[in-house]
Write a structure and sequence with these properties.
Blueprint: H1 10-40, E1 44-45, H2 56-64, E2 97-105, E3 116-125, E4 130-136, E5 141-142, E6 150-151, H3 153-172, E7 178-183, H4 184-193, E8 197-201, H5 203-213, E9 220-224, H6 226-234, H7 243-262, H8 266-276, E10 280-282, H9 286-300, E11 304-310, E12 316-321, E13 324-329, H10 331-343
Parallel strand pairs: 1-10, 2-7, 4-11
Antiparallel strand pairs: 2-3, 3-4, 5-6, 7-10, 8-9, 12-13
Helix pairs in contact: 4-6, 5-6, 6-7
C-alpha cells in the first residue's frame, strides 16, 4: 500500500522555524552563560568578614614602621573630626545610586598588611546618568570605628575592606555596594592590555616620567604605556599641594581607562576581561558582579564624568596631631558637598 508524502503546511513551516530559532537562542544563552562563568571565575573573591582585625597596638606598630605615618591620635582628638548632626545615607537599595570603591594598595616586600594608597569612589547615578569619581586623600583625618582617630588609609590596614567601608559610612554617610582592589604592581599591566591611555602632560610631568622610565615624552596629549601611566599617577612632588594633585592624576588615568574600555569591540573587551580579571580582588559575589555589569556597563558610553576630591578646597585645614601631619576636614560642609554632587542636586 503506497503512502503519500505529507505536504508541509504554512503552519508547520512556521513551527519548524520557531523551534529552530528557539534552539539557537538556547545555544547562544548556554554559550554566553559558560563564558560569563569562566570570566568571573578568574576574579579573586574574598570574604571581608574573614579578615583578621588588628588590635590598636598592632596597628600602631605597623604604622610606626612607616616614617610618613606615625601612630594615631588619642580619644581626646575626637572633637577635631566628629559631627553632632545626623548623617544621612548616600546610596543603598532603591536610591538609584551605586557606590563602588576602587582601592589601590602598594604592599611592600615582606608586608602582610598594606595601607590603601589610593581610594576612589565611583558613584553611578542612574537618575542623572553621571559617573562621579571621588578621591579620598590618604592623609584625611577621620574617626575609625573601634580604633583611635587616624588617617583614613590606616582603616584598610587595620580591618581591610569592611572597616574602610564602615569608616566611610561613619564619617560621610556613604553606603558602599562593593569594593575592587588592584595592586599597583598590576596596574601597569592593565594599562598595557588596553593599549595605553591618552593623557595631557605638562612639560615638567613629561620630564619626570622620562627620567623614571627612559622615555622621550613632551608636553601635550601623549599615549602612555603602563609604566609611564603608573609613574604619572604616582607624581606628587611637582606641585605644592602634593597628594591633591596626585589624586587628580589618578582620576584622569581612571577616566582614560574607562574611555578606552568602553570604546573597545565586544571580542576585544572579552579578551581584555580574561586577562584583567585575575588581577583584581573583590568582596562582591559573582551574582553581584554580573548584575552590575549588565546594569552599569551600558552607561559608560553615554555617562557624564564628574571628578572631585575629599577634602575639597576651602573645606579643610592642615594640622599636626600627635606629631602626625593630617588634613582635618570641615565634616558638615564635606557631607553637604557629597550629598549635592553624588545625588545630583548640585
Amino acid at each position: 500500500m503506497a503512502y503519500k508524502k505529507r505536504r508541509s503546511t504554512p503552519a508547520r513551516i512556521a513551527l519548524k522555524i520557531l523551534c529552530t530559532f528557539l534552539g539557537l537562542i538556547l545555544v547562544v544563552m548556554a554559550a554566553a552563560t559558560f563564558c560569563v562563568q569562566y570570566l568571573l571565575g578568574q576574579v579573586n573573591f574574598i570574604d571581608p568578614e574573614q579578615i583578621k582585625m588588628l588590635t590598636q597596638s598592632e596597628l600602631d606598630e605597623l604604622l610606626s614602621n612607616d616614617d610618613s605615618q606615625t601612630p594615631g591620635g588619642s580619644e581626646a582628638d575626637a572633637g577635631d573630626v566628629s559631627f553632632d548632626g545626623e548623617v544621612g545615607q548616600i546610596g543603598g537599595k532603591g536610591s538609584g545610586i551605586v557606590n563602588i570603591l576602587l582601592i589601590g594598595q602598594d604592599r611592600r616586600e615582606g608586608e602582610k598588611r598594606a595601607r590603601s594608597d589610593s581610594m576612589i569612589l565611583c558613584t553611578f547615578n542612574k537618575n542623572t546618568r553621571q559617573l562621579i569619581m571621588t578621591s579620598f586623600l590618604r592623609d584625611l583625618y577621620v574617626e575609625i570605628p573601634g580604633y583611635q582617630n587616624n588617617r583614613i588609609n590606616s582603616a584598610y590596614a587595620a580591618g581591610g575592606m569592611a572597616l574602610l567601608d564602615d569608616t566611610l559610612k561613619e564619617n560621610f554617610g556613604l553606603h558602599i555596594d562593593g569594593n575592587v582592589e588592584v595592586d599597583f604592581n598590576q596596574f601597569s599591566q592593565i594599562v598595557d592590555l588596553l593599549g595605553g591611555v591618552e593623557i595631557e602632560l605638562r612639560q615638567d610631568e613629561a620630564d619626570l616620567i622620562n627620567d623614571e622610565t627612559g622615555s622621550a615624552l613632551s608636553a601635550g596629549t601623549q599615549k602612555l604605556n603602563g609604566d609611564q601611566a603608573l609613574c604619572y599617577a604616582r607624581i606628587r612632588k611637582l606641585d605644592a599641594d602634593g597628594d591633591f594633585s596626585r589624586t587628580s592624576r589618578q582620576r584622569k588615568v581612571m577616566s582614560a581607562l574607562l574611555d578606552a574600555y568602553s570604546s573597545a569591540s565586544l571580542p576585544t573587551a572579552l579578551s581584555l576581561m580574561n586577562k584583567v580579571l585575575p588581577m583584581i580582588t573583590t568582596d562582591m559575589s559573582t551574582l553581584q558582579l554580573l548584575g552590575y555589569a549588565v546594569e552599569l556597563f551600558p552607561m559608560l558610553s553615554e555617562a557624564q564624568f564628574v571628578s572631585q576630591r575629599v577634602p575639597a578646597d576651602g573645606m579643610y585645614s592642615n594640622t599636626s596631631i600627635d606629631g602626625m601631619s593630617v588634613l582635618v576636614a570641615d565634616m558638615e560642609a564635606t557631607r553637604e558637598m557629597l550629598a549635592s554632587t553624588l545625588l545630583g542636586a548640585g
